[in-house]
């Protein structure tokens, strides 16, 4: 059994317990009032639960706290643990993003704040940014008032160029690979190393286009560090407007970056800084925006951001929901969360993270979970072979997986 050292953590009016990492968390205390769950609720304190919108409510009128706590695991840093038995299919808790951003290709079709799908646009001119309701429009002021002042043409072009989900393929090498799982490893390796070739029609025929697309989404969604400058831009606008503190995601684990990766990030930083400078943002509002800040934020986003795929509708069972999400080609953007970022990975997970209509994440139990068990989600396509999984986890997330399935060599 993993030794549980407690720490203070209050989420959406709920209470978890406390002791290790106290300094880390108290350092962060003030910033949490800004955690716009997107207009909510999140305050952290070492002594009491406070919810910014619920201060006058009696304890009995508060929603029940989620049955989880954050604690230190034996070998994977912090993790999330069940505080009571949780039934298969139960929603463990929901989480609103700290920041989310639509993919550039989805900007005309989803709400610029919550990423909810809107009526399909049929005209030839792009519609640009829009909101699904007044509440989202109002909530977006925290970044949009600043964003509107700047010209984003060059920065958006840079993002488009660096986030194309293109799968690399070198058909000549294929004869070396006997079965699909080996090919998967090959594919994953190459996607990470180079991104210039188009998906090969022949290769897709053999492996199956759906499989290639699913992998493409998986790989590009969570391992490509350059994918997230749009999230950094949104966070920067929130900080400039005073809607978030510059260290809002410091509490999350950063990826280790190589000098090459840092070099690659430089252009994004330069373009973002130039857009802010030309917009005449006052110096004191932009003083936090250094190359170190940009790199540190991207390093955290790299291993903690989620690609949002909307399932839409109401799905009773998780399998039909997963199928619907793949069929609908439903990736609408990326988002970063606080609590979901503390879930560790397992190649045979007991928990699943899903999005139904917008960027609010739902954490659901995939099977019965006992009190004290660690809750883990799967970061990648669990159907890949052992070698392919290790490869992508190591290169994309920087760790060797210690889950039971990997320890058994499966
Ligand atoms: C998104 S964070 C999860 C929360 C993290 N443990 C923390 O303390 O913030 C991902 C990081 O957790 C660790 N991790 C997650 N799953 C793991 C696993 N199955 N085996 C080993 N380390 C894991 C790795 O260091 C990984 O880079």
From TrEMBL:
Highest rank taxon of the organism: Eukaryota
SUPFAM superfamilies per UniProt: SET domain
GO cellular component: nucleus
Domain SET: 66-380
Classification via Pfam families: SET
Protein name as annotated: SET domain-containing protein
UniProt organism field: Corchorus olitorius
């Amino acid at each position: 059994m993993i030794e549980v050292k407690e720490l203070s953590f209050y989420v959406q009016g709920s209470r978890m317990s406390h002791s290790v990492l106290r300094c880390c968390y108290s350092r962060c205390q003030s910033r949490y009032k800004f955690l716009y769950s997107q207009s909510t609720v999140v305050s952290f304190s070492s002594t009491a639960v406070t919810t910014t919108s619920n201060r006058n409510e009696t304890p009995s009128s508060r929603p029940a706290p989620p049955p989880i706590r954050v604690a230190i695991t034996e070998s994977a840093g912090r993790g999330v643990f069940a505080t009571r038995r949780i039934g298969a299919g139960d929603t463990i808790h929901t989480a609103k993003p700290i920041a989310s951003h639509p993919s550039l290709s989805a900007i005309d079709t989803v709400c610029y704040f919550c990423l909810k799908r809107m009526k399909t646009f049929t005209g030839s001119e792009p519609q640009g940014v829009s909101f699904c309701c007044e509440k989202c429009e109002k909530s977006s002021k925290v970044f949009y008032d600043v964003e509107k002042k700047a010209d984003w043409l060059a920065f958006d072009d840079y993002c488009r160029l660096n986030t194309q989900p293109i799968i690399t393929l070198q058909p000549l090498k294929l004869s070396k690979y006997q079965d699909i799982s080996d090919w998967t490893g090959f594919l994953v390796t190459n996607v990470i190393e180079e991104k210039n070739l188009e998906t090969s029609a022949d290769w897709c025929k053999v492996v199956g286009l759906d499989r290639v697309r699913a992998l493409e989404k998986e790989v590009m969604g969570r391992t490509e560090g350059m994918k997230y400058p749009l999230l950094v831009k949104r966070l920067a606008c929130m900080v400039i407007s005073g809607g978030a503190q510059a260290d809002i995601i410091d509490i999350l684990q950063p990826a280790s970056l190589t000098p090459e990766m840092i070099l690659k990030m430089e252009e994004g930083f330069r373009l973002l800084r130039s857009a802010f400078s030309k917009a005449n943002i006052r110096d004191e509002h932009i003083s936090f925006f250094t190359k170190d800040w940009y790199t540190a934020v991207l390093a955290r986003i790299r291993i903690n951001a989620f690609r949002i795929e909307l399932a839409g509708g109401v799905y009773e069972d998780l399998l039909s929901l997963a199928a619907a999400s793949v069929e609908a080609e439903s990736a609408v953007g990326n988002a970063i969360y606080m609590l979901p970022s503390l879930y560790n990975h397992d190649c045979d997970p007991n928990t699943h993270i899903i999005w139904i209509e917008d960027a609010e994440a739902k954490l659901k139990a995939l099977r019965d979970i006992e009190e004290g068990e660690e809750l883990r989600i799967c970061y990648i396509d669990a159907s890949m072979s052992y070698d392919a999984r290790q490869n992508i986890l190591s290169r994309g997330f920087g760790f060797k997986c210690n889950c039971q399935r990997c320890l058994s060599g499966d």
